[in-house]
Amino acid sequence: MSAHPAPLKVGVAGAGVMGRNHARVLSDIRDFRLTHVFDADAVTAEGVAGVYEAVGVDTVEAFAGAGLDAAVIATPNRTHGDVGVALLEGGVHVLVEKPIAATVADAQRLIDAARANDRVLMVGQVERFNPAVEAVKRAVADEQIISIQITRVGPFPPRMGEVGVVIDLAVHDIDIIRHLTDSEIVEVQPQLARTKADREDTALLQFRLADGTIAHITTNWVTPYKTRTLQVATPNKFVVADLMTRQVTEYFGQQPDGSYSTRGVMSWPNEPLKKELEAFAHAIRTGETPAVTGEDGLRNLEVALRCLGE
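Above: the chain's sequence. Below: its structure in token form.
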């Protein structure tokens, strides 16, 4: 048996909440060795880097020139394009947090740079790796999906970023819908409202997909408690998943009296972020198409921007 290949030198760009999460998980995966952390705030960069015996840098140039094999981008959305292109042109494989970028043009720049430099570009749609989503996908694999309903609600975030709920939250669910159906969203009917914020903090989004599936997303920052549920209807089944507890239930075999049989569907207790980063390593090692491609990220962004009327 051959020795395990040398770990990939990896860096994290953006030392906020998500970047720190990535740093923690990367340091636990043997395919990676975390060597650099970039943040525009030098103190933050060095603070997070110090935890992992990595080097903190505060410019994109220093980060892109650090001799990395791979990098995770968790900087603000509007910087994804410039940071990602600098890395890809420097020969670095890139996993960029969702949404892929702030604009369609930036998303396309990333896709083009990855292709021109023959690098992996993967988008961090972490719910793809949620064991409950995987269990639902398996449960409906041979079925025609009629409808999908997703609820992703919770209290107002302590720090309001530069985006509203559609970009922050609904992008997860747009990706889940495309992933479950293997089809593209062709019609959008968005209803947006603002309660407390400068941007939309409540959204009801209805979609029709090319394969005829209809889908509905309810998302907001005005619910006092967090809910993350996914419901999928097919001619023979109704599958319900709680994306937080990972509990998945399948209802089937309706009787003349209206009763159903139910069964729990097994979902494994994996950390989705770890699965995502392992999939990134796998794509780099094998040259296989990554689980979530730049094109996936672009499609998800396009749908979200249509919902916002942009």
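The first strand starts at residue 8 and ends at 13.
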